[in-house]
Structures are given as C-alpha cells and as structure tokens.
Structure prediction request, 413 residues.
Amino acid sequence: MTDYANPDVLVSTEWVAENLQNSGSLRLVESNEDVLLYNTGHVPGSVHIDWINDLNDELVRDYVGHTRFAALCAEKGIRNDTTVVFYGDKSNWWACYAFWVFKLYGHQDCRIMNGGRTKWLAEGRPVSMQEPEYPSATYAAQPQDASIRAFRDEVLAHMKSDGPLVDVRSPAEYDGTLLHMPAYPQEGALRGGHIPGARNVPWSRAAREDATFKGLADLESIYKEEQGLDTSDDIIAYCRIGERSSHTWFVLTYLLGFENVRNYDGSWTEWGNLVGVPIEK
Amino acid sequence: MADELQSVDDATRLELLLDYANQLPSLPERYWALRDAGIGLVHECQAPVFLLVEVTGGVVRLRVDVPMEAPTARSFVTLMCKSFDGERADVVLNAPDDVLHQFRLARLLGMQRARGLSAIYQRIKRDVRRQL
Prediction:
C-alpha cells in the first residue's frame, strides 16, 4: 500500500483495529448498498451514512446541499478536522461514493479502509450491534467542488472534444446488451449502450477478490499502459448511478495520482434517457 | 403487518425490518441443490434471492433463501412469507399491487432498492398464476 501516489488515504484493517479507541479525532463511517446491513453488526464505534437517506436529496436529483451535509456531519460528531475512514460492502463502492461526496463538500482528511466490510469480517475482527452516540460537532461545509463532478452538458462537450471517458460498467452494459448490472434491478434507462468514444474498463479490474485494491503495478498496467491514460489527462468516469465510478475515481485520483478526474454521477440512468444525445453500441 | 409498518416512524420501521430479517424461514434441505444450481433466482434483485413458488390444491407455499449479507431482501422476503405462505392462491393473486407502498417501504428504501423488492412480489404472483 505504501507505493501508491497518496498512500495515507488508504488504511488497513489492522490500522483501524489499532485506532478504534481514537474517537476524538477519528470517525469510522460505514456506507453500504443495503440499508439494514450496518444494523446487523458493524465495526465498533462506526457510524452509518446511507447513500440514499443521508446523502441524496429527496426532491432534487442531487446531493443534500452543503448546509444539510454540515448538519449530517455535526450529528455524527464529525468536525472539519476529523479523520474520516470509510468502509462498506460491495468492495467499498459505497464507501468510495461517500468519500467522494465528502470531498465534494470539502472535507480534508478522508480515507478508505482497504478491503472494507468483507475483509474485516473475514479476518474475524469484532463487530458491534450498538449504534454509538457522539457529542454533536460544529461543522462548516464548503459549497460543492465542481472540479470532481461532471454534469451532463460538460460530459457532452467532453465527448465532442474527444476527451477520455471511462465507462466502468460490465461489458454487457457497455455494449447495450443489458441496461443494468447482471442480477441487478433495471433502473429505467431507455437506451442501452455507452457514451460515444468511452472506453470500457470495468471497476472490478481494480479490485482483488478480497475486496482490496490491486497494487500499484497492476493498476498502472491497466490504466496507463493498456488504456494509454496519462496522469495529466482530463478524465470523466461514469457507470449507472455513480457508485462504481466513485471506486474508479478513487483509484485514479488517489492511488495513481491522476490530477483531473471527474465522476459523472448522472451516469447511464441520465445519459441513457436524455433526449437528443447520441449513444454508441 | 401493513398496519404496523404504516403506523411507526422510519427508525422503528427499520427496527421492525431487522426483526423480520432474522425471522426468515430456513430452506428445507431438499431445495439446497436447486438453490446452489441458481434455479429460482430472482434476477431483478441485487442480492441472490432464491424463491420457489409451489401451488398444491390451491394453496401457495414459498421456499426461500437470502444470504445474511442482504438483510433488506431478507426482511422483505420474510414479509412475503408471513403474508402468503400457506395462503390460498386466489388470495395471493388478489393482494394489492402496491404492496411496497402499503408497507411504507418505497420511500424508506429509495427507488433503486424498491425495484428489486417489487420484482420479488411480482414473481410470486406470476408463478402462482402459471400454476393454476
């Protein structure tokens, strides 16, 4: 883990186990696909942040806004200078997604527990059913950092200028055979395929079986050598609703040191429904 | 159950769902081979939900299995079993189509999660209809 571009942003399960008592300056955040999973047992002391109920606005297809984000952090006992360590199910998709939203609102010290929930449990480490309560904190969130988020008009302009687009979905979703992940619910896109010019690099290529990230040499061989991407390239990553592409955004930005990667969270559920934009099969 | 789920706040509703997740009936051993072969999987669902619907003499039996890592699907499948297992086929077919709303789950779980659960429900009805 030490040779990544930003090695400090990734912490091991051992490190978390050693720092469990440090709730003064550290907050563990579990983010899962399944809303009930945290309540079945979680890393002791961790708080739960749900990608739907906590991070997404009910009335606008957008994140909750920096005022509500600040209130969420305050409620979870997270200050602006708290080290926040994210982990979760599904190879840390939702942990990376929550990490990305925290970065969107300017949180400084965010980290990912490598291997997530899967590795923690596989190692037989302790779990707790008890939801911790921390004193409410004071938090000041920044307005959204547009440099890590791509909106549809920017994606369209990027496509027209032949900017690199990374489609991280499965090959069948990319070529339009499927409108959703194999075995996942159909989420209502009217066209199947990909954004013209996008290359297909499934997110899973960056992960190992045990849900940890692959090592630097493997990641460089995929994104730099095979795909020919350069750390200075202006890159947009997308998937279906922005969760799997958060994983790739994290890999490119923090593990490989790419400087200009944006996550298109509208992703295929927006692009595949837009009137008048082209797709490719 | 719908009355109970409708009458409580979101936090209590989550607790009730967790209780249901722990009450999922176990799958009789004679069905394990089918489950392990991927037969009866609800493909629309993000978790590997095994669901076999049997209708004998007009009575519906549900054979189900959902892994521990998917407590939301487990809780919903438990609700389905409590509602429909051992029930008459016509009762199942005449049950309301908007069950997720009746259980107040659609808003709590969000659209993406609700779709997979809705598929489980529609699958039960479809399989009952096919066996009549």
Notes: Chain B touches chain A through 28 residues (CB under 8 Å).
